[in-house]
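Late entry, written up from scratch paper. The run itself happened at the end of the previous shift, but nothing got recorded in the book at the time, so transcribing now.
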Amino acid sequence: MKTKRTATVLTVIAIIAIGYFAIPKLIGLEQSVKGFSNFEEVIGIPNDLARYITGVVEIITAILLALSLTVAKRAETTHIAGYLLLSGTMVGGLLTEFLIRPEPKMMLVYIAIVLLAIAIYQLLNTHTLKALDNE
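Output as recorded:
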């Protein structure tokens, strides 16, 4: 039971964190726009397009993770899809910080590492969580 509770708490943390970062990108807050200011010159993708795509992927991730908590029939599928997407997004975020930004924002690096660790933990425990659901 403790494993299930831990998994649920970690999922809620991941949903809140990824949602917190997605919304500013989608509504175009100044700080978010500024954060994507050099994408075009470094990798040739228009800044706004990169920001919107990232925001949409993050929102989809949050939705999948929320569904994994609420939709019993599809819980394992949405759990795996959500955490795979979160893993990819966090790896992309880390690459962005170190390869695209002129100077990495270390707080974002730490957050990405924590969310990546949560995603890996959750993916590795998918089988355990499924077994607990079947009990």
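The mean pLDDT is 89.
(Scratch paper discarded after transcription.)
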